[in-house]
Amino acid sequence: MNKPRKVIAIGLLILLFGPTMGCSRRLLSGIRKYVVKPAAYSVKSTVAGVRTVFRRPGRPSPNRLAKRMSKEVKPIVMIEDSAGYRSHDERIAPDEAAHYRELAIVKPYDPVVRYNMGRLYLQQGLLEEASYEFDMATSLDPRFTYGFVLLGRTLRMRGLYDLAIAKLRRAIQLQPDLPVAYIELGVCWDERGHHDKAREAYFKALALAPNDSRIYNNIGYSYFLEEEYKNAIKYYKKALQLDPDDLRAHDNIALAYAMREKWDKALIHFTRALGEAAAQNNVGHLLLRAGRIDEALAHLERAVHLDPTSVPALGNLESALRLKGRIDEAEKIHTRLLEAERLHRPVVTTSLESASR
Prior knowledge:
- There is one protein chain.
- Residues 12-89 have low confidence and may be disordered.
- Among the domains are: 3-36, no CATH class; 95-210, Serine Threonine Protein Phosphatase 5, Tetratricopeptide repeat; 275-357, Alpha Horseshoe (Serine Threonine Protein Phosphatase 5, Tetratricopeptide repeat).
- A hairpin with a 2-residue loop joins strand 1 (42-46) and strand 2.
- The chain is an all-alpha fold.
- Helix 9 packs antiparallel against helix 10 (195-208).
- A two-stranded antiparallel ribbon has the order 1-2.
- The N and C termini lie far apart (71 Å).
- It has helices at 3-21, 25-32, 64-69, 94-106, 111-124, 127-140, 145-157, 161-174, 179-192, 195-208, 213-225, 229-242, 247-259, 263-274, 276-289, 293-306, 311-323, 327-343; strands at 42-46, 49-53.
- It is globular and about 65 Å long.
- Helices cover 67% and strands 3% of the residues.
- It contains 18 helices and 2 strands.
């Protein structure tokens, strides 16, 4: 018996009878000589094959404004229908969902079936399941551009930015004239805090789709995150020139105007996006945060007058009254707030109100 086989045989004996044999250090070291050292990188086995597992580096610390406003200003990312696949913003109806599930059983190796299952999971917020399905779709069809785009989106939503960027770059490599791939890439870079790279991607998308108002909105969003409000307003205005009814752009430009303390313009655009009651609440909320309590009170009282059961407005008004020391009035508003919360379950916390996403 040659040496490797002998050592393997001894190893099996140790596993079976080690406790009674009293194996020596020398014997164990002889076995370890034939153990293959692990590779410098790790791999993960999936149904679609072996995938390299990338380490996720630490995310750059977001700047002060990004921390404060990241939930109040949002970029726009959508999938166009130009490639013949249903766009992500069209929700999958229940009967379609049932059909896709049946097809997944009958045709498990059809990339379009796996893609549609991924869309379904993404719609339901099941990000790991969606990632798996999009990964399957792109493994079954390595030239499935839209599969890579939505895989990149899903990985971004999971915070796996390096992998997301790699998948989106693959989509761009496959179809360099696809604006949405650049838009998704830009959103990845913005969320990582690399705003210059984000805008570079957005401008590439803009070169391909110069009349797409959503790209201008995203460029404005990127400048907003860097507190460059003047540039943000410039690009939000361009978005509104192309689409005067874009509620999200009205919402975002209003917030940028508020950051520059141009309250009248902020009120106008919040009103276009949300209606007067919510607009008055938003301006009051922002004035309250800026420490301008008397001005905030005027707007919040107007908001409550227009919508007596608005939970955000009542909550903000109560806070303003307490800050002014008007405790009795604040207690009365608090009672009204509790009644409004019972009407609007689940309870909504006081905050800015946003345009429909």
